[in-house]
Design goal:
The structure is a homohexamer.
Chain A (H helix, E strand, L loop, with lengths): L2 H16 L15 E8 L3 E2 L3 H12 L4 E3 L7 E2 L4 E8 H31 L6 E3 L9 H10 L13 E3 L1 H7 L2 H11 L6 E5 L2 H9 L4 E5 L3 H11 L4 E5 L7 H5 L5 E3 L2 H4 L6 E5 L3
Helix pairs in contact in A: 1-2, 1-3, 2-3, 3-4, 5-6, 7-8
């Protein structure tokens, strides 16, 4: 994650929430009134972004705010854990509070859900990855949270990986045709992945040297056969409607990667509060 | 919702996903290859944003894309319902697909969860409202989705409403002091809301003419007493950890407004696919 | 007023004036040449923005510039008063000078005109407020200057207040219809204001519980009747062509608010110079 | 004036006023409801920007709005003159109205004041010009309005003209030194102007071949001597506290240019209304 | 290449060149004066960007400009060839001319130089690729031009490919350590490339399964040995100071890829003029 | 060159190269690992931008990076010269490296080529200037590099100088007509330049008092006659296909300015490396 991009993003989030000013706090607090508060876990979860995101929001609102004691990404915290302590002008702490909390709650939600998928599959040498089903505008942050939760990232956008689907195959007349056309066109640094529905397609992928073979919504039995067929000739990725209930069974088939859209599109946020300290 | 802001936002979302180009589709499709696809519900849900958001994404990617048959916001759709039909250059349909779906799924998720809260309270004259606990960068869209689901919006940002909390009261020495200071400072167009924990505070709010009294995490019995005490002298808003299980009981206390953070921070996304038509 | 928005705005103003560089000063001064200057009042006026705006412009141009002795907003200054002392690299003082002065002169002009309206009505319990007739791009700053001059703000934009005018009434068939439709749709945090031309409309507003009744270009006698009719059942706002000559008479009618477009669209700027100190 | 820059600027103005939507108009008007309105002069003035600015605002809000009958820049209009007729979706006409009017009123105010200065000096071959004392963010538009009023522009920013003042002279030890240093450094396309206080300085300017000699706050008699001394060897510009009362006397001295800061920093706005047509 | 990003970029280029307007053309041409011109090759070269870039510049300046007859990317054109015909308002053709030509000349320069490298190696199954040594701000366009010239792209930025260099190896203690750490961390869609100086390093790369082995500034003999050692177990890329004189010899070693920084950082621009048609 | 504009530009360049993060360096280096490196000349050249540009890139990436020993612009450096020493977090040095080098190599290339043209004409009192044939997006920086190389700048954009060409003359019916129309319209601070092909046009320029006469692609003999004809009545600028071979002969004709497009559109970049120090 890079700071130049991050700061630009966080500034726009602050502007969304603060707009032309905080009508409640600005008239009540002088910019000299100092205060201190703890961001505290109200439930148990896996944290993502205390230092890299939440603290950065406070510092962007006012560089004089100091942020200490940030809990490390990926830590499982329990109720009452202090996640970050912020100190500085009260008016700026109040103005940054909501954006910092919204982000920290959202990212920790993603890290927590990811960690549950990871936990379910810990017996298998498999990666849980995200997808491009992220919240628009937040991809960099959400993919960061997936990593914090013990997961891995899939391609970041349409520019940094090839994924051949039905349409592309239809456009070329054949899977092999699509692979060959693209291999001839795209950078040598790019891997080629193909979405397959049948074992015949898996075999065709092997024949034309595809790097990653996605098994799209296949049943467990077919997945096993696909894994056996592929061996170490390509990476095998299971995808499509994976849940906490099904993920272990899928992992047991031997696939190398399981991509889960729900990590980023359906993780409920974690409950975090901001407790002010008596001065 | 305003188009000038919306379009700027959607363009940045497209750039996030497409980056410098679609490595898979651009080499395979000429810009002359036309196609058509349906966005189709894969489960039952309440829709938000088919015309105003998803169609706009496609048109921004390429003004030549035509969008037809958008289902009206707030409609409960069933599995298989076609939500929007898009036609135009295949390469642009593919490039806009993910952003359009991510938004439509997310917003429909919010509308659907909102509609469930609304349904639970339909016997009571109460409003279900959102909060500022929205996904950073998406507030305008998420608040739009809440309305589509039958809910109402709370204040949009720190500039368009006053909400006095503990800190503000502490800073002024008293609730009444905070209210009077702010009433003297803020525009006459702004309502003053106070977060209360006790009936004493509710009474103090009434004495100093607060417009909206928030009952923060009060138990049902205390809420009832607060409602009785307030009568029609102010709006009464219940807030704090409201769930689908508790919302009807809260509504039965007679509060006017129930604000629910979960509407925007924890709604799982709806499942929507894009089915291509045979040409 | 919030710094994140403010700084973005001030940076764009600096870029407008400096463009690709100062052709006169850059070749003549090394970045090590230090200097100091006073911003000095050349006439008597009420100041707005010495610390919050002018000093910020200098600091954004170069964080090494120090700004001291800023006169407090709302102070009536006399000819020769030093409003702000700036010290730092001469080349950066010269590059920021014009933007800082243009803003300080403009905002002080607004504060000064506002204070004259306030002075004229000091015997009455009435608010002088601005309108949306601000200079495009400067609304946040101009509304800040109105407050510095002792005035109050009206709604900030089309999103944070409802103001029902002729068209809206016509669209709904009746004033009451428009009010009821909007009350049903807009957030409970939003007040509803209606622009009225006749006493009949004022009465209709009372009947449907409007929060703020604007008397648009009414004669003094009708205003008095309107005020009597309304009592404390709503806020009454006089609007339309208010001048320094007429404002006291309008205030005497007992209206609660007088909104004056001229505060922001027609205030002449104040004369302020920058006097360099001999080193 | 260039459209690419202009449109970016106008879009940001629309966003400032509309924010996340028009709470009053959006719930009342469907996007299919069409209407038509005239922008009408409520007083007599010289117009600037009906087609280039006001109409552009409406078209940016919604390209389906048609704008007709725009009065030509620089025309002296009388009370009741229709300045522009706009037709299209009512909701978009209402959303763009305030920005369009604010700009048209402001720019026409500048054109009108400019035309009064021009009128006062019509017997003399002199140019009335603006200065850099413009409203931050609006320089391109305000300088356009000065031209519409019959005035001329001075340099646009610090990059497109050299103006040597006291500080620069002090930094180099002498006026001649500053001129020679800069002539050696700046592009050959750039004219060199020097601000002078005395006839000695004027003579020194002539000796070192300055292109434009500014007479800064000189008395009329000294100006006459300066003009006589310069002849056609340089352009002579009078500057400093020029008013409608003094401008003719200054023009009579024979100076070529009179620059007037008040054109852009103190022109009151013109009164323009928007009259809706009965459909 | 994607239009949303492209248009934003081209708009900023137009603003750089036109600034607040064209002082020469705007006063001389009404917006109704139409004209037509040909962009014509003044020398022989390989073209890139006539339709995708130059025509887009003209259309962005004014959507009424029509662009016809664009020569296809990658075509070798001879002196006098018409590359694109543009028709529309003369003032807008003049305002867009320089930006369109600057881009077309620059991109065609890159395509031309690329095609010369490609030509030199046409007997070998090798790819000529670019590097990250592009002109800041123009990477998407310059990489497009490389493709137009028959070359291929290397990774686009630091996010879409891993390239392990000395520092990274030093940081981990060993090449293998760096590879293993990164393979464990980065997305499975990302290939791992290592920069090597010696055959020992090449062997170590093979042992730990590196995807792409860069031979950095190796002599021809060592390259041959490296190629032999690698066989088809990885892609081999030669890099470092490759010139038109040396490229064929390098290609003859059997490497799969030759990356050439000069393609984008040192290609002289092509000479293209704009010839106006007599009307 | 102004910092506010510069920093905005450099930040966008960093974002282009780093995108969402450095996949190689971020996993390998903690943000606490410090390092130091020298930017070193790999060939002999004239440097531009070590302090003003390259160091600024590093500081923007991380303000904790310290930059020392920057070689002064315009210095001819030899192989092995250390141009700048940078110290700070290794991960940020690596992330900023490519952008800093790309810019420094490009700008030094321009300074070097400029200095060669300057050297060729050192016996003549002539200025070598750039043109508007710059790389889009980099004009401010490239014109800075031209000055560093001993050259001069021509007009910066279409707004800060008038240059009358064929089209403009045709539009007015005559050269004199165009000059008179523009002189009447443009600011008095703007010089008027005319592009001429014949001695008749040169004479016409003199008759109507043009400030700068461009001799466009004239042969040497005609240039000499033009220079003789003009004397000191205007500046004479030679333009069109000037090369290192022809520039001295052109300078010998006595023209005051020779403008060379190649300075900015065809300068090969200089070779600069970044050598890491052993810690």
């Amino acid at each position: 994650m890079d700071k130049v991009s991050l700061q630009s993003m966080l500034r726009s989030f602050l502007r969304e929430d603060i707009a032309h000013g905080d009508l409640t706090s600005e008239p009540l607090f002088s910019s000299e009134t100092m205060g201190s508060a703890d961001l505290v876990a109200r439930e148990s979860f896996v944290i993502a972004g205390a230092e890299a995101v939440a603290a950065e929001v406070f510092r962007l609102q006012n560089p004089e705010i100091s942020c200490m004691g940030a809990v490390k990404d990926g830590t499982m915290v329990s109720v009452g854990t202090c996640l970050l302590t912020v100190s500085g002008p009260v008016v700026d702490l109040l103005k940054a509070e909501r954006v910092a909390l919204n982000l920290l709650q959202h990212l920790s939600g993603i890290a927590t859900l990811t960690s549950r998928f990871v936990e379910k599959t810990k017996l298998y040498p498999v990666r849980i990855t995200d997808t491009r089903k992220t919240t628009p505008g937040l991809r960099m942050l959400e993919k960061y949270a997936v990593r914090a939760g013990g997961g891995y990232n899939h391609r970041f956008n349409l520019s940094d990986g090839v994924l051949i689907k039905d349409n592309h195959i239809a456009a070329c007349g054949s899977l092999t045709g699509a692979v060959e056309t693209l291999r001839e066109k795209v950078p040598h640094t790019i891997k080629i992945e193909v979405e397959t529905d049948t074992l015949d397609q898996v075999r065709e992928c092997l024949d034309c040297g595809v790097d990653i073979i996605m098994l799209d919504n296949m049943d467990i039995e077919t997945m096993k056969q696909a894994v056996a067929m592929v061996g170490d000739k390509a990476l095998v990725e299971a995808s499509g409607g994976v849940t906490l209930e099904t993920v272990a069974t899928i992992a047991a088939t031997g696939v190398h990667i399981i991509s889960v859209g729900a990590l980023t599109h359906s993780a409920p946020s974690c409950d975090i509060g901001m407790d002010w300290k008596v001065c």
